[in-house]
Design a protein that fits this description.
Length: about 260
């Protein structure tokens, strides 16, 4: 089945989740394709995906990399692959069900309805997080407050990793100038999209902490984000951002448009 929508799922040791998340996405009424970017998982995650490819031929793809190269580089690898294969809507999504597959059509609809980037937001309608310790909730929430203060972005969930991009956004952003790999990568992509003049909106979701597998969060990732936000803002003072192309002018009623 053809699709204009690609879900990119980076993995490292996600054998407990990868088959279930894949089947959940493929069970949706809206057709999505999936690209797994696996960073050499020693637990056999890639082998599970390759076994399922026989069942989901033409819909499930995998790119294998040697070693843990970082979330940001995984997504950029996926973005390049998506552009090469002509997808119009490109999604970032975790493998661990913290992002609900049922929300994918809502993000796609937001981009179809005028957004250039749609964010699955935990904080746009309060704090919608389930099964996180209060310390983690507070750290995440105030991290977004800090990012808004430094960057000036009018986005409540600045570190969100559940997103839909219209193709034009990824064609415009220079991936070689995206420098960060953890939470700071998510911030940098949002900030860069806004600097290019793209419309970013937040779609409320409920974020559920993973039940299986091990979180990849670390103090180094938070440290990168804390320092990286200042670097992202400072670098923007010395950089020119190509503005997105203007929408074509509407053709007045009664005037024929010649192809």
């Amino acid at each position: 089945m053809s699709s204009d929508s690609l879900v990119i799922i980076p993995t490292y040791n996600e054998k407990e989740n990868i088959e279930k998340i894949t089947r959940s996405i493929f069970s949706l009424q809206q057709p999505f394709h999936i690209l797994v970017i696996d960073d050499g998982s020693p637990d056999g995650t890639a082998a599970i995906v390759k076994r399922m490819q026989g069942e989901f031929s033409g819909k499930l793809f995998i790119e294998e990399r040697k070693g843990k190269l970082g979330l940001g580089t995984a997504y950029i690898h996926g973005f390049r692959w998506a552009l090469k294969h002509d997808y119009q809507y490109v999604f970032e999504m975790d493998a661990d069900f913290s992002h609900n597959p049922a929300d994918l059509p809502r993000l796609r609809e937001a981009c179809q309805s005028g957004a250039d980037v749609a964010i699955g937001s935990r904080y746009v309608t309060g704090v919608n997080v389930v099964n996180w310790p209060m310390s983690r909730v507070l750290m995440s929430y105030f991290a977004s407050v800090y990012v808004r203060l430094i960057t000036g972005m009018d986005i409540q969930d600045t570190t969100a990793g559940f997103k839909c991009y219209r193709r034009q956004v990824l064609e415009t952003i220079d991936f070689d100038r995206i420098k960060f790999v953890g939470y700071a990568f998510q911030i940098e992509m949002k900030f860069t999209a806004l600097q290019h003049g793209f419309k970013v909106i937040e779609v409320p979701i409920i974020f559920i902490n993973r039940e299986q597998g091990v979180s990849k969060m670390s103090t180094n990732i938070f440290r990168e984000a804390f320092i990286g936000v200042i670097q992202i803002k400072a670098n923007s003072w010395f950089r020119k951002y190509k503005q997105k192309p203007a929408a074509p002018a509407a053709i007045p009623a009664g005037i024929k448009h010649d192809a």
